[in-house]
């Protein structure tokens, strides 16, 4: 979903591009109407070709209209933009890079959450300024505090500017840029931020994820509907494990803006999507105590249960087309129902569904001889289809069994979870070089590892010997060292190198840092 950000300077007014009133001539009466073109974004899903076109898009969408252009006002947090760097009490250099014969450096004061740009080795007329971005560096406000080196000086600096906009809930980045006098070449540092809300690798990754949170939609730019559930879950878990509550506002905002999307209550045609959202709202309930989140998760679980039948001996269908019974939907079904039981005193319904769901899953044949979970069943034969054992299919069953153990006290569930986790964490195919990797792209696969390590972390916390701590730490250490940008964004291959990031890749990294805590 395109996020339109107004680029403006604090020193220059915006130019308005005039529109046109010209209109195209009408089509001849006999001409057929042009075919409808579906605009796929985070409210459009065409993974299941058997679903009718009407099921691919939500009928209710939050507004995505851009705000009218305005001249940007100074940001005021602890101090307002334009503060003298001489007043900084704690200066550090985030990065210094060559710019021909000059150098440009980005300086920060993390206590005051402000930065400024410095040029050195130059002379009169050299320009220096800051750029500020509120969408992870996709677009930016250019030339904040732009100034030129006066005569008699070899270096110069801008005034200080805030990184974030606390009042506007905008999470930012800065970079320093210079242009030598008489040159058309511009040189800039990479994007960086202060350590505010980024004091360790867990909080830094979560803050980088929130740079992609769209305040208008309550979702995350660059990723889809079910991925957004996982991204919000990662933010919720981060608040719990790190103690950073700065982004708790996203919980209610996402709920309020999206509760009526699709069929309402986070229900669409994909039962795994519904379950992802249900589990996210359980996490939200655990953190906030707000009962409406738990009630929504219960509605979601009841909806999914309608797709349980006796084809292949049981299990729920992946989508409303009822053409495929797969691992992810059914393992999530077990986890969601067991989790509800653990939060609803006196429940007997959800725990029974969870027990029955796991009995069927265990006997379905989707768990292969290596104790890895393949993607699903061939509907005509009810046999394992042998498709890729994606990482998330290895992470959700242990999480489901952990909830089932909590619900029943039966140690057999943890024993089975350990067997599955041992298989996935030692599989050379899943962990080339010891680092987990899903070989695939598209919009879905980058989210898989996040669900994997989240589930593995839940099992690890339930086992007194914490057998997967070293594995999780190895993944986190490697990703932090090899797969991280200057702004704490992460790519899909945790073994590196970093090339690009998006909200799906980033939430998986947040899940990893949470699980390795």
Automatic annotation (TrEMBL):
Comp. bias intervals (Basic and acidic residues): 475-486
Pfam families the record matches: Glyco_hydro_76
Domain of life: Bacteria
Region (Disordered): 475-517
Keywords: Signal
Cleaved signal peptide residues: 1-23
InterPro entries for this protein: 6-hairpin_glycosidase_sf, Glyco_hydro_76, MUG_Protein
GO BP, sorted A to Z: carbohydrate metabolic process
Gene3D superfamilies assigned: 1.50.10.20
Name the UniProt record assigns to this protein: Putative alpha-1,6-mannanase (GH76 family)
